[in-house]
Amino acid sequence: MELFLLILGLLALIAVSNVLNRIVPAVPVPLFQIALGALLVLLPSGIELELEPELFFILFIAPLLFNDGKRTPREELWKLRGWILLLAVGLVFVTVVVGGYGIHWMLPSIPLSAAFALAAILSPTDAVAVSALSGRINLPKGILRLLEGEALMNDASGLVAFKFAVAATVTGTFSLATASWSFIVIALGGVLAGIVLSLVFIAIRSFLRRLGIEDATMHMLIQILTPFVIYMLAEEIGVSGILAVVAGGIFHAVAKDRLEPYATKLQVVSSSTWSVILFILNGLVFIILGLQIPDVTEVIWEDPHFNNAQAIGYVLVITFALYALRFVWVYLFSVLERVSNTTRERLYSTLLTTLSGVRGAVTLAGAFSIPLVLKGGSAFPERDLIIFLSAGVILVTLLVASLALPLLSRKKDGEGADHKHLTEHQAQVRILEMAARSLKDETTDDNREVIAAVLGDYGQKLRQIHSEQGFMQSRAMRADVCDRWLFAIQAEREEAARLVGQGEVAVDTARRFEAILDRTESILANRSFALFYSLRLAFKQIWKKITNRTEGRWSMADIEAIRDLRVKTSKVAIHELQDTMGESDNRACTAVIQHYQEGIRRASLSFNASLHSDEEFQREKKEWERKAIQMERDALQEMYTNGEVTLGMVNHLRFFINTMEASLSEEELE
């Protein structure tokens, strides 16, 4: 039961991290996940999760690298094969040698062989971390492919070097000739094992098809098992399981292109299933990394033999040395290969490649696999310090990449790649179009009429946006619109009070209308209230469905009374805005007037549509309108992730969505 609760808690943290990323998109999801994992350990919950390296590699690294091998463009990897080998093999061994001697010189308490082991486990970049960061950073396509290819290959070379260094520390013996030959056998054997085992799995699936067994569930189960079996069998025969799953993934992609060139039900199911699996595994990798960091830090933090500031200094020095070595290596070969036309371009691409060398969970898992004792029974020298330094380098490289790369890529975009980003007007149109497409995808025979009504409103919004050539483009314009809108709301309040005083409107109707205005005013005055209101409304709807509550619902007579009052107050608000047009920005007044005119139009359509006058239809329409608002927010997040909009535009576009939510809240019928 405890294990189940732990797994449930970890999955919940994945969801929380993605919610936090939506709220603060400038911070990448991996950092949120590491922080949440560390927080879970620091809380008095008693939760502890011991990292088992072998299980970690099989359960997480194998399927993730298998998928990366399948989706990475093979033609581009082949074109970059020289550079990939230089980084994945050449740079790894240079790092082991130079880094090993440097670490031993800086920390004499770490024997030379153990220093080589630390340098080896720090040498490979992490494919999972690179994938997690690449979605939000505008790296040039060539550099991105180079990083992906490097991360796929250097895990094997780094881990092989690490194993030999650890073995040399444990046994006290080392042979360069034996190690070199073993590396060749392990690497080539891993690739060959991956190809052969992939052929076996493909043959099994083809045999099942010839028997007429096209069951998608059966074939999907075989696909899921494939990377685990390939990794385990490759490791069992003494070759690289990591290279085996990478080769297996690439071979599966080639086989799919040639044997299954058409879209099948299995391909659709496979894509959906793997997207869920990879989403969970990616999240768990960083959360588990966060779970380990507090314990790793505590051991060194409380050890009287180490000065805490000095320990942090070691981490920073080692990280800087890794960056410097990577920069020199990449720049040297870029000069020899004449990759760029100018020195400035060469330096820029080299800097991006250097800072993208993120270390991840593979490094920490390797460090945890260091044995506790040597062959003679004595403790492995400075094991805790090695694990601490590994964790520190991981965190620093993640932070540097998260902070520096977006700034560097944004600067480059500003110099000559503005066309990559949408304008704010184009982004507004794209958001509405993506939400409309999402609504169409949700259409069924049962909801076709309701969604058609919502899509009609979106068509009107798009026509309005196109006619305006951008809605509230500047911060000053948005402030003026807010000011005019709040002014109009006050005019509505005064008109409603006047109508109540004259007995033309019932007190209950006015009270409900006042609540709607309060909600709209809160959303406009405080952007964070929009999120609070959305969550509150979602929980309220769920609670009503669970409890099947019907009390508190408005009758059609109540709804019509509110709409009638809305039309009357809207006309007064328009009149007041027109009177002030000479005293303020006419564009802001015009934008708010158009909002009120649109509300009157929608109310008139509701009055005249006798077919749609039933209470249930209106409730369903409002529910789909709320879902559409969330679809707009999802569209904005996707656009930011794809690099179509800048971080500065995100806040402006959120305000654009909030104004539509405010319009919806005015008509909210509960």
Describe, in plain words, how this protein is organized in 3D.
The protein is mostly helical and 670 residues long. The chain folds into two domains: 2-42 and 53-420, Na+/H+ antiporter like fold, CATH 1.20.1530; 424-666, no CATH class. Helices cover 80% and strands 0% of the residues. The protein has 25 helices and no strands. Helix 1 packs across helix 12 (265-301), helix 9 (176-210) packs antiparallel against helix 10 and helix 19 (475-501) crosses helix 22 (556-579). The longest helix has 37 residues, at 265-301. The chain starts with a helix and ends with a helix.
Q: In the CATH hierarchy, what is the class of the largest domain?
A: Mainly Alpha
Helices, by number, come to 25
CATH topology of the largest domain: Na+/H+ antiporter like fold
Q: Provide the helix percentage.
A: over 70%
Overall tally of structural domains: 2
Order of helices and strands: HHHHHHHHHHHHHHHHHHHHHHHHH
- The percentage of residues in β strands lies in under 5%
What is the terminal-to-terminal distance? 40 Å
Poorly predicted regions are: 411-419, 609-613
What structural category characterises the helix and strand content? mainly alpha
CATH architecture descriptor of the largest domain = Up-down Bundle
| Cα-atom radius of gyration | 30 Å
Count of extended strands: 0
- Biggest sheet layout: none
What shape does the CA trace take? elongated
Mean pLDDT over the full residue set = 77
